[in-house]
């Protein structure tokens, strides 16, 4: 049997629900995140690399010439930071000079 009074439980539940609704809008700071490893299974599946210059342009789905994480539509964080959050790899920071097969041009 719970020792938390019913009224207190309802109050805590309301606070927790409000926190859950507020959290998705918060963009993680790059310096709070561990760096994405090239060996991460998801990263490997997306052909992620820390160095976009090592990617053969002929293997890309998108023919745009200059492709790296810094000019990808899915990058987050601040311009100029070496490691930044990415919408494809939540909870990790990707190299601004990196690349993966999901790269998309900014609008
Ligand atoms: Fe980099 Fe874009 Fe791939 Fe994210 S989705 S890892 S920003 S190329």
Number of strands: 2
| Overall structural domain count | 1
Number of helices: 2
Listing every helix as H and every strand as E from the N terminus to the C terminus, the arrangement reads HHEE
User: What general form does the structure show?
Assistant: globular
For this structure, the CATH topology is High-Potential Iron-Sulfur Protein, Chain A
Question: In whole angstroms, how far apart are the ends?
Answer: 56 Å
Output mean pLDDT.
Answer: 81
CATH architecture label: Irregular
Oligomeric state: single chain
Rg (CA only): 19 Å
Q: CATH homologous superfamily name? A: High potential iron-sulphur protein
Q: Which structural class should the secondary elements be placed in? A: mainly alpha
Strand content: 5-15%
Could you give a short description of this structure?
The protein has two helices and two strands, in the order ααββ.
Protein described:
This protein has 107 residues and is mainly α. It has a single domain (28-107), classed as High-Potential Iron-Sulfur Protein, Chain A (Irregular), CATH 4.10.490.10. 21% of the residues lie in helices and 6% in strands. The protein has helices spanning 6-22, 41-45, and strands at residues 83-85, 93-95. Strands 1-2 form a two-stranded antiparallel ribbon. The chain is globular, with a radius of gyration of 19 Å. The model is unreliable at 1-5 and 7-23 (pLDDT under 50). The structure holds iron/sulfur cluster. Iron/sulfur cluster (SF4) is lined by residues 48, 69, 72, 74-75, 86, 88, 94, 98-100, 102-103. The site of iron/sulfur cluster has 13 residues, from loops.
